[in-house]
Write a structure and sequence with these properties.
Layout (H helix, E strand, L loop, with lengths): L23 E7 L8 E4 L4 E15 L2 E6 L2 E5 L5 E5 L6 E8 L2 H4 L5 H11 L5 E5 L6 H12 L6 H21 L9 H18 L6 H7 L4 H12 L3 H19 L4 H7 L5 H12 L3 H9 L3
Antiparallel strand pairs: 1-7, 2-6, 3-4, 3-5, 3-6, 3-7, 5-8
Helix pairs in contact: 3-4, 6-7, 8-11
Length: about 300
């Protein structure tokens, strides 16, 4: 069943946990497997390095959006809000990702690697880096990531040591060609403001939306609230709120037997007909059909 979703808490932190013994996972992804055909907004403590295998993908990390084609790779740093969606008219959107905790790069806390090659990257303005196989300096990255991709992920010490070495090699290449060249910015300030807006939406999603209240709590004007949210999230407040309400409805469809009309009211839709229309727009199924699919009812 195609109903994957990144589990998140109210602050959009991913609640997916990597194995603490060896915090690395190779994820083979197809966006058509996710609810609504896209990876929902989230952030995490892990790093992500990915390669596009088929189709075209839009990667959005707060205010920056990039279209990724076959052969493009990208790095997303920890604690950066991001989402992945198929590009317009894309017939496929397949990619694979290395997801891993920084400890596999840095080793022990306070190490030379952490001090010289990792911590400085976290203070940079950019949260997202794109690279392409057409650039000669990227060839070792692709070769080593392909080696891991072609292997069966093992628990053996030899395989884990190889993966850790590869991650460090890749990081040094990225550091020398991308990370070290970036200017320092105001990432923390931007994260704090947009998270305050998102917190308001997540707290008040089930009631009638008030742009005035949201702007007041975010210490901006109504106009700036709308402009800033769209700049950072690449969608309007209304679109985000609708997506979030649908995601909460999916949770209720999975975990309860309450009626469709009750779910519609609980998650804040003004009418059942608008709820059904919005739900079908995101999942291509009606709420009732989605529930039947979940329960295996023909």
């Amino acid at each position: 069943m195609k109903n994957r979703i990144v589990p998140v808490d109210k602050d959009l932190n991913s609640t997916f946990k990597l194995n603490p013994v060896f915090p690395f996972v190779l994820s083979r992804d197809d966006l058509s497997d996710y609810v609504g055909g896209f990876v929902n907004w989230h952030k995490q403590t892990a790093l992500e390095i990915a390669i596009v295998l088929e189709g075209s993908i839009n990667v959005t990390v707060l205010e920056r959006e990039e279209t990724m084609e076959v052969g493009d790779g990208f790095l997303i740093l920890p604690e950066r809000l991001h989402t992945l969606k198929p590009s317009k008219d894309a017939k496929a959107a397949r990619y694979f990702t290395f997801i891993f905790e920084p400890v596999l790069l840095t080793g022990f806390k306070g190490s030379f690697f952490e001090h010289a090659f990792y911590s400085p990257a976290l203070s940079k303005k950019k949260a997202f880096y794109k690279f392409n196989i057409q650039d000669k300096w990227t060839h070792p990255i692709y070769e080593q990531m392909k080696w891991v991709y072609d292997q069966e992920v093992e628990d053996s010490p030899a395989f884990q040591l190889n993966v850790q070495r590869i991650l460090q090699d890749i990081w040094i290449i990225l550091w020398n060609n991308l990370l070290f060249k970036e200017e320092e910015g105001e990432r923390k300030q931007h994260n704090a403001r947009i998270l305050k807006m998102i917190e308001y939406l997540h707290t008040n999603y089930s009631s009638k939306f008030s742009l005035t209240d949201m702007a007041t709590q975010s210490n901006v004007s109504r106009g700036e609230c709308c402009r800033y949210f769209k700049k950072m999230m690449h969608m309007t407040i209304s679109d985000y709120l609708m997506e979030y309400r649908v995601s909460k409805a999916i949770e209720l469809l999975k975990s309860t037997d309450i009626s469709i009309s009750e779910i519609s009211e609980t998650v804040g839709f003004s009418s059942q007909s608008y709820f059904i229309k919005s739900f079908k727009k995101k999942t291509r199924l009606s709420p009732l059909a989605y529930r039947k699919l979940l329960k295996g009812i023909p």
